[in-house]
Amino acid sequence: MLTISQLAAYAGVTVRAVRHYHAKGLIAEPERDHSGYRRYDAAALVELIKIRTLAEAGVPLARVRELLHADQEQLAAAVEDIDRRLRAEIRERHSHRRRIAQLVAGDSLALPPDVVVYLDLLRQRGATEAMIAPERNAWILMAARWPDLIPAMMADKIAQLEDRRVARLYELFGQIAAEWDASSDDVETHLKEAADLLHTLLQAADSTGHLDSAQPADTSYNDLMDSFADNAHPAVARLRELLYERGWTGWTRVEKRAP
Description:
By secondary structure, the protein is mainly α. It is built from 13 helices and 2 strands. Strands 1-2 form a two-stranded antiparallel ribbon.
């Protein structure tokens, strides 16, 4: 007859595991002998080895009891089901590993691939990381709210990058950010040029009906996005004032201002 320590050692488990199996009702807890010790026989050791083998194979403890007393057909069906579950878990873990690996790229965190491509194109056209950072965060918010619209939005944004006026606009944004930090006298001149360019682009989009179709309609969320833009850089508020003077209101959803 074996003590609990001997039983655990012979089965290759810990005493704590044996007690856990007792608590789960997987292995019977024998009565204490006259010395006050619990003694286990060979049958208990066989049972414990079976439990350990099933647990090490990935069988949930909730199903171990079922399999211990299953016939060959039931065991085969249960094993097939468990194997199917394990394969699904493996696929999920591989997916998690891929996503974790993507996090080192920075832009891949919480962003769809289409947006990552767009941000890389901005860099190729001279956008600084200081300019990219608030745009990245804005697209994280947009993608969370309107994931189905992102592919069309990105296709439109990427196409716009071929427009020399848009290229100039991003150049101006970089200059404005640098000049703002340096308290340069040129910042207002460049803000007005940027406002004029935006005004021209908005007029063109409005004339084709593209302005309304390209902008999601959710007032509360648009207000949130506008607030985010205002907080991203103080130049945004001034640029919005200049756009308002030119007949436009809003930022995330730009609309013609009522006369």
